[in-house]
Amino acid sequence: MNDKKLKLVDLAKLAGVSTSTVSRALNDNPLIKLETRQKLQRLAKKHNFSLNTAASRLRTQKTNVIAVMINLDGDTEQSINDPFLLKLVGEINLALNKHGLELLLSNSFMASDDWVNYFINSRRADGLIVVGQGKSQANIEAAANAGVPLVVWGDPKTESNYPIVGSDNYLGGRLATERLLEHGAKNVLFLGDPAHAEIGERYRGYLDAVSKAKATPNVLSIDITSKAAYQGINQLLVDKGLCFDGIMACSDMVALGAMKALKERYISIPNDVGLIGFDDISMADISHPSLSTIKQNTQRASIILVEKLLAQLAGQKVNSQVVEIEMINRQSSK
Amino acid sequence: MNDKKLKLVDLAKLAGVSTSTVSRALNDNPLIKLETRQKLQRLAKKHNFSLNTAASRLRTQKTNVIAVMINLDGDTEQSINDPFLLKLVGEINLALNKHGLELLLSNSFMASDDWVNYFINSRRADGLIVVGQGKSQANIEAAANAGVPLVVWGDPKTESNYPIVGSDNYLGGRLATERLLEHGAKNVLFLGDPAHAEIGERYRGYLDAVSKAKATPNVLSIDITSKAAYQGINQLLVDKGLCFDGIMACSDMVALGAMKALKERYISIPNDVGLIGFDDISMADISHPSLSTIKQNTQRASIILVEKLLAQLAGQKVNSQVVEIEMINRQSSK
DNA sequence: AAATTGTTTGCAAACGTTTGCATAAACTTC
DNA sequence: GAAGTTTATGCAAACGTTTGCAAACAATTT
């Protein structure tokens, strides 16, 4: 095995040309004659040559790396166990790859609070995709103000000086609630923490639907986890009995936690209680009864997130954008 | 806002010392007087200075980046939607962070087949963590032979020239099957594709348990997804009726897919059919009935994976290692 | 006070690319 | 065939760190 790492200059020597020529050839620069280009590219492939990214990043001041950070509230367990967020990260990765960009997976532990410094000044990444607004947008705002090219997955209706891509949470919350009401529910419970930006919007949609139907709203504010939902619903049933006949859950995981609590008490879904979630994670389809939900189009959102980030890197000013949602009717809310 | 990116030399000028001194001070090199070091570190913080990683990587030939790649079989849907793999990635990230390392999320799309070149020669990363052995280990073997520092999450009993960290899949498969048999099952079905390395081991454990009980084995080979499991079990029930009274599923997602199929036909779990999964994803606890499973200790595995990789980077020869599993008894297999 | 030792800092040469500018070669055009 | 134009390549200077070695300074010993 040829252990010696080849450099541009070695390749140049082998081909009898200058390093400039090789460099240009490998970057497909039309300054170099097509024939020469192809010859050099073949040579590079043959010798298993690959450019030293450190050197080229230093020289070009570009990394072709995008940092993705899952923006967690310190006090929630949602985090790394939420299938929805992880799926989103996976799809962002694919979207980045299509543009030849790489994904640096980050978190607040590494980046602490000064994102400008950590990501941009240090030239770790060219830009930043923040997944989740969390409860506080201070960090994001500071980074955006300091000139970090960034886009955020969150609620696009939030007032902000940075572009946010996300679903129409208000509409989703309203549609789901309306559906429950239309099918006879009188007391729809909102299950989730409205302090969270995206969930707050869903809650607003819920409120509007409820008040339009002249029903009374009812919130159970919990952490965004299935366990919290399970415990919360259990407790509520113990305390007040079955005081609702519909649940608009702020996420599928939360809905599934609620579902378990209901099933354990032989409360029929959807007959006694209609249940609708949000996200359309793969478990929604596989639960029993299958879970009605508002599907967020993560694939499309990922593509848009990346496009907007690239536009920003190209110096354009970009705006927030809503990604269409879809109501998926399954068994839990017939 | 101070837009001009500070360099080492600027900071040096500000402090009235040489760049060497600043560089050493920021790296906490004891050659520099403690007092000077602290002064310079304060100065750096005050001016929001941070080192250009591209430059320092070029100079030191180290990146402090580890590439993590989810090794998918092209023909399976398991991939990015499998909560277990994603959770593992999340925990590997945390484990890396503790050592000051960053995670580059990669996949076969970017890295194609020549991992040496893509990751190491190009100095994108110092080492590689491969999540999943897949059905073919050719790529991994080639990379290991070519000297890529790498560790693999998979079945540690597989013969290999690279270290594998993973659960005792044989034992897990055996324990779960034994439990089903002990509780009266006569016909335990193995649900999963034994061609997959880890699953093959679980299958061996299953086989041994079954033959020890003088029962007859029965496999339904399917893709590692809940959907495939749902369809597979449905089809089997249509074709042959309820020809089993226990299912050893190769993963929790698969088990949950099977669970849905059973519940839809009012087949009682665990009375008619006992069901045990593998992984202990968060849904296992929240399903109804809750899913008995073999818990894989991903957190510990992640820590070990990183330690082994670091040892390898330090030039040590490291071996495969088994991470303990735990049988979690829940309702689905009483 | 000179010589020796130990401590702290600075000089300058790398690391391996990319790219503006200069040059050389090959064609046009008058 | 000289001058201009186009095309293809090479020269050499960056990019911003780190680090071996030398130097300066301080402390100790002779």
Note down, in words, how this protein is organized.
Chains A, B: Keywords: DNA-binding, Transcription, Transcription regulation. Chains A, B: GO terms for molecular function: DNA-binding transcription factor activity; transcription cis-regulatory region binding. Chains A, B: Pfam families: LacI (PF00356), Peripla_BP_3 (PF13377). In chain A, the strands form two sheets. Chain A has a six-stranded parallel beta sheet, with helices on both faces. In chain A, strands 7-6-8-9-10-12 form a six-stranded mixed beta sheet, with helices on both faces. With about 325 residues, chain A is α/β, with parallel strands linked by helices. Chain A has 14 helices and twelve strands. Chain A has three domains: about 10-50, no CATH class; about 65-165 and about 300-325, Response regulator (Rossmann fold); about 170-295 and about 330-334, Response regulator (Rossmann fold, 3-Layer(aba) Sandwich). The mean pLDDT of chain A is about 90. The first copy, chain A, has helices at about 10-15, 20-25, 35-45, 55-60, 85-100, 110, 115-120, 140-145, 170-180, 195-210, 225-240, 250-265, 280-285, 300-315; strands at about 65-70, 100-105, 125-130, 150-155, 165, 190, 220, 245-250, 275-280, 290-295, 320-325, 325-330. At the A-B interface, helix 4, helix 5, strand 2, helix 7 and helix 11 of A face helix 4, helix 5, strand 2, helix 7 and helix 11 of B. Chain A binds a DNA duplex (30 and 30 nucleotides) through helix 2 and helix 4.
